[in-house]
Amino acid sequence: GSEGLPESLRRGQEIAQRPLLFQELDITDGAALQELFGKHQFSAVMHFAGLKAVGESVQKPLEYYRVNLTGTIRLLEAMKAHGVRNLVFSSSATVYGDPEYLPLDEKHPVGGCTNPYGKSKFFIEEMIRDLCKAERDWNAVLLRYFNPIGAHESGMIGEDPQGIPNNLMPYVAQVAVGRREFLSVFGNDYKTDDGTGVRDYIHVVDLAKGHIAALKKLKENCGCKIYNLGTGTGYSVLQMVRAMEKASGREIKYRIAARREGDVASCYADAALAERELGWKAAFSLDKMCEDLWRWQLQNPTGF
Question: For 63-155, where are the E strands, in sequence order?
Answer without folding.
Answer: 86-92, 139-145, 147-149
